[in-house]
Specification:
By secondary structure, the chain is mostly helical. The chain contains six helices and two strands. The radius of gyration is 20 Å and the shape is elongated. The two termini are 34 Å apart.
């Protein structure tokens, strides 16, 4: 096989970058389209999942983590609070701020949504050969490195 020219190598990398980007986005959309337990938007669920993963935090930190403006997060928190999924508590060190935390009902929504989405993914993976699942395990480790850059 002849050595690759620089332009062929660059095109190959670009094709890989494009294919990876498009595939990851499509997979992400499919996962997100799987049921969210309760009558929530994906943005609302992301706040609940973030609280589940990171613990109680301030509305400003939630807005920064989700990449939205504070007024948008304020509306999201109000809707989640109205649904009984989050609660406000006193900030441990700053009396001017509040912490937002999951309620038991919020924990239940996150747990059930994860269960539904994992069940969907398990069904998809069941159709793969053992060799493909092994390859996918290796790919997940690589994707985790890319995501953590």
């Amino acid at each position: 096989m002849p050595p690759s020219s620089p332009s062929t190598t660059t095109a190959s990398r670009t094709d890989l970058a494009t294919e990876l980007r498009v595939t990851v986005l499509r997979l992400s959309r499919k996962i997100r389209s799987e049921a969210v337990a309760g009558d929530l938007s994906e943005a609302q669920y992301c706040v609940l999942a973030g609280l589940s993963h990171h613990g109680p935090t301030t509305p400003r930190a939630l807005a920064e983590r989700d990449g939205v403006q504070p007024p948008t997060m304020t509306r999201t928190i109000a809707a989640l609070e109205g649904a009984g999924l989050v609660a406000r508590s006193a900030h441990p060190t700053d009396g001017r701020q509040v912490h937002i935390e999951l309620t038991d009902a919020g924990v239940d929504v996150v747990t059930e949504t994860r269960r539904l989405r994992n069940a969907w993914m398990d069904d998809m993976l069941r159709g793969l050969s053992a060799k493909d699942r092994t390859t996918l395990e290796k790919a997940v480790a690589i994707l985790r490195q890319v995501a953590d850059v």
